[in-house]
């Protein structure tokens, strides 16, 4: 057969070859996820490759993804990975129609990539993390080899031949093999889902059975008037289900509180210790209202929320272990918190121990921490952006120096130190709203954690700044609602807000990106009054 004859012969079978590649890819993924479900879900190829992609993505691209996809950024990443894998599988199926062994080898290459990604993750437990990708690749390669074999002419002379169009290939055998591969993949996928679920059952049970003791130091009641009853304004307390989540975990870790451990060690720690969850429960618990803000929050963005936290005072615990802040001669100026998913977050020791309510939090809004927000234990430090304070699923605290170690985000161009900037936001009216003439209530929130909000002002178009009415303050660590009755006149208008914190600093109008230490600028909305 000449090359042209071979190409002509294969053309009618290309769709079936492509289908073979897709079925092989599905089989590989399904088996890999089943094995991962029985070993460690984070070692699955999609999660491992996705995690590696996140680690290597430039900060500006991550910021763009969060800005455009919000908390669904991980879903879009995984869908993108699956789309690339599908195209890869299609191509391998077509290649395998002429080069059967090469196509199968391509599937094995997919396994190598997944294995390297899994074993190279910060949270990798070792070579066993390669098993899901390797097992899946072997099965996928076998499936492709068998299916392509059914598209070739039968008989001993067909080893390197391709069936002429419509002649000689095993139709019945292909249908049976393809059906078996599809059913087997579905079964493996269901098995993987079941195993992944069972692996987290102990963690779910530990959270369900947990009853947090009453805090020894309760938060005061939220003052009347702290929450304005104005439609469109964010609730003063953010419900757990509505609280923003920005992290790099493609699979939310499910940690069993009964087996959880926290190691505290490093420079200046005279008595290193490993604590259990029960050890924390035996300490005095405190309850505090604290507003958290993500550094990825754009001006006017949604990644800020207020909750009532229950936890242990971190400064007291560190002091018991002999830790002193740098201002008192302590050798460590950075506290590095490590998560079970490999994340590292560095916080200034001085800030953690300066008297603010830095917590090892166990509860959120009257219940144990949700898994998505760090169960069983996370850090909460008022006044610092989350990327330098809010380590979720924490397992290790090391006292070190900023010169000695760069945590995850610092390695990617973000700042070492990042106090939350004074910011404000208009919640209502929404951008491009069309209110009626007359009195329109302009309202929103402002925050400057650990400093407090002293004043909020609103400007209409290029007019003078006018002071808004502030709602009652809970604490200086929480956001503050505000309102301004605007006598709206017909036409297009721009509404702008700015805040002044308790130090007297006025929110800057200078627009900056979120990188490296948080966005700044005034929030504005454009409306048309009818």
Describe the structure.
The chain has about 525 residues and is an alpha+beta fold. It is about 35% helix and about 20% strand. A hairpin with a 2-residue loop joins strand 7 and strand 8.
Give the termini separation.
77 Å
Helix/sheet category = alpha+beta
Can you summarize the main beta sheet?
5 strands, mixed
Radius of gyration: 29 Å
Give the key terms:
alpha+beta; five-stranded antiparallel β-sheet; single chain; 530 residues; five-stranded mixed β-sheet; 12 helices
Give the secondary structure arrangement, pairings included:
Elements: H1 3-10, H2 14-38, H3 45-56, H4 59-69, H5 73-98, H6 100-119, H7 131-150, H8 171-199, H9 201-208, E1 261-266, E2 273-276, H10 277-281, E3 286-293, E4 304-313, H11 314-320, E5 334-339, E6 344-348, H12 349-352, E7 359-364, E8 367-368, E9 378-380, E10 394-400, E11 423-428, E12 438-447, E13 453-460, E14 466-467, E15 469-470, E16 480-488, E17 491-501, E18 523-529
Parallel strand pairs: 1-10
Antiparallel strand pairs: 1-2, 3-4, 4-7, 5-6, 5-10, 7-8, 7-9, 11-12, 12-16, 13-14, 13-17, 15-16, 17-18
Helix pairs in contact: 2-5, 2-7, 2-8, 3-5, 3-6, 5-6, 6-7, 7-8
Short account of what is shown:
By secondary structure, the protein is of the alpha+beta class. It has helices spanning 3-10, 14-38, 45-56, 59-69, 73-98, 100-119, 131-150, 171-199, 201-208, 277-281, 314-320, 349-352, and strands at 261-266, 273-276, 286-293, 304-313, 334-339, 344-348, 359-364, 367-368, 378-380, 394-400, 423-428, 438-447, 453-460, 466-467, 469-470, 480-488, 491-501, 523-529.
